């Protein structure tokens, strides 16, 4: 979708178009794109890398953001303003689960059950391990338990070639997720992140609004001047300092 959006922005038309729906589907599946002749070679190369039909061969986000056409005229890739995301763990936030009902995923109970199954799965743990290693995070408790429980089976599984590939090579999920849990592992996981981030923004904005209201109310309050106590009554000195027979001076 990023490639399609970029194509529309630079070319002013959609990349796949045909009067025949079967032909249109064939063009999309085969990645047949018509590039205008006036398109620069760098831009064409970037788009062609984004329109590769094989996900494993398609340009990664890192490659796209560091492409010469993308950083032309700048000192480096664009800044990433996305909020930091960490791998999901249980228990899940019930407020987020409740809000996810609006996406037709089912009842809160079914959403919680399915999400829990996903994030406790071996595939999810395997996918987030690179991120945990990079950030220095401890592995989930379930991983440690599995290693203790099934440590013996590791040697048995190594005897088969396919099992060796599974143990030593990254899984397809890990390749897709890489060391970034923001990348899609499941639509349910992605929606959970989005809903939670929206709620966090709303809560932060609500807090700012409440502070603004308090500040405005405080500004409307009349200024109260401090009360200053009156000075104590002055006492005159009645003593006479003239010598007897002298004229009074005061």
UniProtKB/TrEMBL annotation:
Residues 160-174 have a biased composition (Polar residues). Pfam families: Pkinase. Keywords: ATP-binding, Kinase, Nucleotide-binding, Serine/threonine-protein kinase, Transferase. The keyword Cytoplasm does not apply. Residues 1-70 form the Protein kinase domain. Residues 129-181, 199-250 are annotated as: Disordered. The keyword tRNA-binding does not apply. One of its GO terms (biological process) is microtubule cytoskeleton organization. GO terms for cellular component: cytoplasm. Signal peptide: none annotated. GO terms for molecular function: ATP binding; protein serine/threonine kinase activity. Residues 129-156, 199-223 have a biased composition (Basic and acidic residues). SUPFAM superfamilies: Protein kinase-like (PK-like) (SSF56112). Belongs to the protein kinase superfamily. CAMK Ser/Thr protein kinase family. NIM1 subfamily. This is Kinase-like domain-containing protein. The lineage of its organism: Eukaryota, Fungi, Dikarya, Ascomycota, Pezizomycotina.
């Amino acid at each position: 979708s990023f490639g399609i959006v970029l194509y529309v922005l630079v070319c002013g038309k959609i990349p796949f178009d045909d009067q025949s729906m079967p032909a249109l589907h064939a063009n999309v599946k085969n990645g047949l794109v018509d590039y205008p002749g006036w398109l620069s070679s760098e831009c064409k190369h970037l788009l062609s890398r984004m329109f590769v039909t094989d996900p494993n061969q398609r340009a990664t986000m890192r490659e796209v953001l560091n492409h010469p056409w993308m950083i032309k005229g700048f000192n480096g890739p664009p800044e990433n303003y996305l909020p930091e995301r960490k791998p999901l763990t249980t228990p899940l936030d019930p407020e987020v689960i409740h809000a996810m009902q609006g996406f037709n995923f089912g009842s809160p109970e079914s959403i919680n059950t399915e999400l829990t199954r996903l994030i406790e799965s071996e595939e999810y743990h395997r996918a987030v391990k690179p991120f945990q290693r990079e950030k220095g995070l401890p592995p989930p408790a379930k991983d440690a338990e599995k290693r203790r429980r099934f440590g013996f089976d590791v040697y048995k599984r190594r005897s088969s070639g396919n099992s060796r590939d599974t143990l030593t090579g990254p899984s397809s999920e890990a390749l897709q997720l890489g060391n970034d849990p923001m990348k899609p592992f499941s639509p349910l996981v992605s929606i959970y992140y989005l809903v939670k981030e929206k709620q966090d923004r709303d809560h932060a904005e609500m807090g700012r609004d409440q502070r603004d209201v308090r500040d405005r109310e405080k500004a409307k309050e009349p200024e109260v001047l401090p009360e200053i106590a009156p000075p104590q009554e002055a006492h005159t000195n009645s003593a006479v300092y003239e010598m007897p027979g002298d004229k009074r001076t005061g």
